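Quick look at the format.
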Amino acid sequence: MNGIFEWKNLGKVAVAIVFLALFIGMSIILGYTDTSIQLAYEAFTSFDGRNEHLIIQSVRLPRALIAACVGASLAIAGVYMQTLTKNPLASPGILGINAGASFAVVFVLSFFEVSSLNIFTWVAFLGAAIAAMVVYFVGGVGRKGLTPMKITLAGAAVTALFSSFTQGILVTNEAALDEVLFWLSGSIQGRKLEYLTSVFPYLLVGWTMALVVAPMMNVVAMGDDIAKGLGLKVGLLKLTVGIIVILLAGGSVAIAGPIGFIGIVIPHIARRLIGNDHRWLIPFAGLLGGVLLLAADIGARYIVMPQEVPVGVMTALFGTPYFIYIARKGFNKG
């Protein structure tokens, strides 16, 4: 019986891979500049410098790869945060990780003359790490330690705090406002391949760690007491998960700004389609996250063409109703 489920899950992962490849191809072809499959093929096999070839190679391919990587990273981070906190609404955006990374980047942009992608990457990681530590510390104060409700409230408070700091900086620095406003809404438009290559090693480490500890998360999902009884070092595992979330969420913010709802919506969809076994859930959620962000980015190109809507606005359009559905479902159960 288990063999049947394994084959079914393998088939679902294979289908998700096909969809990811399909949407990457659509992202390369579709947009304001009219191109085709033939032109895309020629751009990589017989590049001749024409405008369409330049757009495909230097604009659309990096954009497609960035969307796939950021979507996968946010989805995986969301799965781990929801499992660890036992909170269906947990995500990098809700628990302050994105807000901390965003504040750090805006602070550096506003007060220092920095243009190095590597510096932005480390600044985003630092902001994400500080936010995570504050949330864990505040959520763990008092009786019963770190509970799902306390960590959610702590995350909301930290998000509000860092968001207020960010808005305060932007109000007093109009030049910074012009520079980062589009980035703060969450966007991959105009991002060069260098943005991804500077962060990709950290994302790769995060993905690898996520796959390695996935079997242990099946035990943690049953409760800390059971996990400890089975000999699992829960404290060390939680620290590892925290590092994974910081690498994936911090790296994503460094590339594309704070894109919301991917980390909330995708884990729930993935669980419905493939179940709660993290050995399958993690890679499947990553693939679905890439597909969803690619689809949102393609849609963002056509809403107000020739202008583009930031992809963060698109994810909010379909993510908000699902967020409300999840919240209502949770409250009804309670």
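Next, a different chain entirely:
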Amino acid sequence: MTHALVTGGAGFIGSHVAAGLLERGHTVTVLDVLDPYYDLRIKEQNLERCREIGGDRFRFVEGSVTDEELVRSLLSSHDVEIVYHQAAQAGVRTSVENPKKPHRINTTGLLTLLMAADEFGVRRFVNASSSSVYGEVEYLPYDEDHQTVPQSPYGVTKLAGEHYCRLWDEIYDLPTVSLRYFTVYGPRMRPNMAITNFTSRCVNGDPPVIYGDGKQTRDFTYIDDVVDANLTLLDTDDCDGEVVNVGSTRTITIEELATHVIDETGADVGLEYADPKEADARHTHADVSKACDLIDYEPSTGIREGVSQFVDWYRDNRDWYEPMVLESQTVRSSA
């Protein structure tokens, strides 16, 4: 069995990757700084789920990927074979408001990990990137050769991270893969995402609020498909040195998404519209043919099925999850 280090493993995607590894019998160390970017109770739930699955095969270390001494200690003394680097300062809008905020984690933290991974013989480094690297649309769907013109500081840091991974693969012979995620959603996701906000408002009898005209499109990727893509990299070296899209292959307008949430919740509400947010992409759409060729990636959950599953999960976990969603809405509306 493999010992994996999952950075950002208390977060949404990271905790699902960690849980997937544990369910397969692997050993997992999670490194997470527990940044209160959103309510820490969600992260505590994520960690508890990993503990329940993994038992003594799971270890949590609180700390930052920018802490060079800590990172080197984890990689030098615990026989880590693969790093899943999920830690990041997320948020396109947050990065526009404070451009310096994502740099330290997304760039300096990545470099700290790459250097230590090379020094201590990690056999593969999987980097979580983002469709935000694309920016301006030249054509759709985006393939990996599409121009990269990020429209936010967050996107710039993610693109820089991809290039650093490429260099470490080419110059230092550290096998790296960068996975470009397209709007990942599912149970325990961040409370300030569109699907959580739409669901929360609808189950409380309020109309979902759409920023802009609602005609913008998104390629929403269900969390289980993202986990499958990551875990496949345990057993193949076909992606080493590559950048690979991880999306659903299908798109939906935000207006259609909100209407579908209304239908799934049975809410008797209409739609509300507000001013568009700065730096939000107009369209995203993934060409995943490269992932299909290299790792047999086949996204299995469409947006309508995924939203139905999320609404069911939301209702089952409403008591503890909803207060945090409502709080995020209050913060957003007062910003």
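The mean pLDDT is 94.

See the schema section for token definitions.
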